[in-house]
Specification:
Blueprint (H helix, E strand, L loop, with lengths): L1 E3 L47 E5 L9 H15 L2 E4 L6 H12 L6 E5 L5 H5 L6 H5 L26 E2 L3 E8 H7 L10 H13 L3 E3 L8 H12 L14 H18 L12 H9 L3 E7 L2 H8 L12 H4 L2 E4 L11 E5 L2 E5 L1 H4 L5 H11 L5 H5 L11 E3 L5 H10 L4 E3 L18 H5 L5 H13 L2
Parallel strand pairs: 2-3, 2-4, 7-8, 10-13
Antiparallel strand pairs: 1-12, 4-11, 5-11, 6-8, 6-9, 6-10
Length: 459
Amino acid sequence: MKRRILSLILASAMVFSLAACGSKDTGSASEPAAKTESGETAPEQDKAKTVELNVTTTFAGEDTNAQNFKSAVDAWCEKTGNTVADASATSDETFKTRVITDFETGSEPDVLFFFNGADANSFIEAGKVVSIDDIRAEYSDYAGNMNDDLITDSLVDGKKYAVPVNGFWEAMFVNTEILEAAGVAVPGTDYTWDQFKEDCQKIKDAGYAPIACALGNIPHYWWEFAIFNHTGPEKHLNIPEAVDSDQGAAWVAGMEDIKELYEAGFFPENTLSATDDETFAMFTEGKAAFLIDGSWKVGGIVNACQSDPEDASTLDTEKLAKFDVTYIPGAGDRKATDLIGGLSMGYYITAKAWEDPDKKAAAVDFVTYMTSDEIVPVFSQHTASALKNAPEVDESVFNPLQVKAMAMMSGVTSLTGAVQDIFQGDCRVSTFDGMPEIVTGKVSAADAVAEGLEAYHAQ
C-alpha cells in the first residue's frame, strides 16, 4: 500500500490528512541528482576546483535522520568531488547557544540546518545569512521545488531564509502493556482532560507511573500543551500582554493543571530530580504509561527496542509492538487532534559562504541536493514537507510504530507552532527551570508567569 506525502499547511482551521512514513533509512540517498523545478540539474561550481564545506545540522545522536544525512552527504561528495566538514550535533539549548556563539565570533559554518523562528533572529539581524530571494537573483531555480507559502518568514524582516526539509509533530506515546494491565483503553480522537485524569488514577492504582516526565529537567512538552488546552489553535501563538489579561490567565491555568497532576502523584516520584533520559527509560522499560514528545522520538523508541541501537536487525518486534502513538487529551477549544507541529527548521546559506567565490556555487548545490524531491521524502518520512510534488512512499518498508505514527497523523485536525519557540531565553526560566517551585507551591503559577512575561516584554 502506498500513500502520498501531503504538503503541510500551517493554518489552525484547516484539517490535516498527512500520510507519510517511517523513521529509518528507507533507501540509499546516493542515486538522485539535485534538480531544479524545471528538471535541469542545479548549477554547480567548476568541478576542477573542489572545496570543503563546513556544515552544521541537528542530524546527529538519536535523530532518526542521522544516518540518512550521512548517506546523502556521502552521495553528494561523490557526485561533486567536494568534501564536507560535518559539525552536526543533537538539538538542545546547548546546541542553539553554540550556533549563536559561532556567528558572534565569526566561526559560523557555510551551510546551517537550524531553526527558523526566534532562535535565528540574532544572525539574521546581523546579516550573517542570505535570503532565498537574494540567492534566486543569481540562481533563479533555488528552492523552486518548494511551495513558497510553506517556507517560514523570518520574524526579523519577513524574508525567507531557511529551505525546509522535514516538519515535526508533538503527540502522546503510550505503553499499551501498562494500559492493558490498568484496564485503560488507548486514547482516541475525542480524548478529554477529565478522561485523562481518570485514566492516570487507574494507572497509578495499578502500580505504575502514569506520566513519564522529568519536570525538573524537561517540562517543555507539558508546559506547551497545558497552555494549549486553555488557548486553542487560534490564540495559542499570542504572547500575553500581562498576567492579568485573558491570555495571561490561560497561561496561569495551564501551569496550575500541571501542578494538579503533580499533587495527584501522576508523575514519577523523582520527577523533580530525574533527567529526561531517565524518565524516558521508565517509559520504554514498562514503568510509565504516557510520554509526550516529538516525532523524532519514534526513532528513540525503536532504538530502545534494539539490543544494539546502531543495528536495526536487532529489533525486538514484540517489545516494539507494546508502543503506540496517539493524541494528547484536549480541553476547551482545543480538540485532542489539534497538535503542535510545523516546518520549524531548514537550510541556511551563510554570508561567509556566499561571499566566498569558491564556496558559493558549492553551497547552493549542496542545499539544492539536500532539498530535492528525491531526498526530502527520505527525511520527512512520517512527518511532512513543503514539496510541491511529493512522491509516493511505500509503507511496507517501515516498522509498526512508524506506521502507527502515520495513521495517527491522518486524524490530525490542525497543527500549530510551538509558542515556546517565540517565548525564548530568560523569559522561560521562571516557568521552565522554575517548574519544581510551581508544582510544589513554593512559587505561585501567577507569579512565575508574570516574571516570565515581564522578561519577555523587557527585551
